[in-house]
Design brief:
Strand content: 5-15%
Shape: globular
CATH class: Alpha Beta
Order of helices and strands: HEEHHEEHEHHH
Number of strands: 5
Largest sheet: 5 strands, mixed
Radius of gyration: 16 Å
Strand order of the largest sheet: 1-2-5-3-4
CATH topology: Protein-Tyrosine Phosphatase, Chain A
Amino acid sequence: MKKNMNPELEKLLSDKNQLQSNYIDKITDKIYLGEKIALFKDIEYFSKEKITHVLSLIDFDFSLPEALKLNHKLISIEDDAKSNLFKIIKECIEYIEKSDKIFIHCMYGISRSPSIVIAYLMWKTHCSYYDTYFYVKSRRQFIDPNDGFVEQLKLFETLIKKDNYNLNKIEQYSLNDKNNANI
């Protein structure tokens, strides 16, 4: 962890000892980030960590294994620089907020799901994109949001500050608004 970690981000993680998983990384006491295969390979991890919710960010339909009795929300989004994160951020944040402990995943846990985790933590902690990105990367080293998602997250930072962290208008934006959002 960085020595100069933002205190708002640092206090989200009180338990530095965590169970090991090849497919899941604990980001905060509430948020676990990983890849889809964890749902099939690490079933015992979910009960040991008392994970109650799953947020799937993929572009095809699938069901959780029957052994996992968890609340599940699937939000369709492609891992494409042109995909509009603004259309799903509010819905994702609301779902994360109502969960006790949540596993957020995409296919490989590299671009889509880390982007939503970063957006949530930016909103929750009022920290910058860069601070939040490096915090999440310190917990899951191989995150790499696509360029379009990075640009949208930077714009999201500006927009939520402008709107005092109110998400009600966020769905109306897209990356195209970067030049004309009066920011």
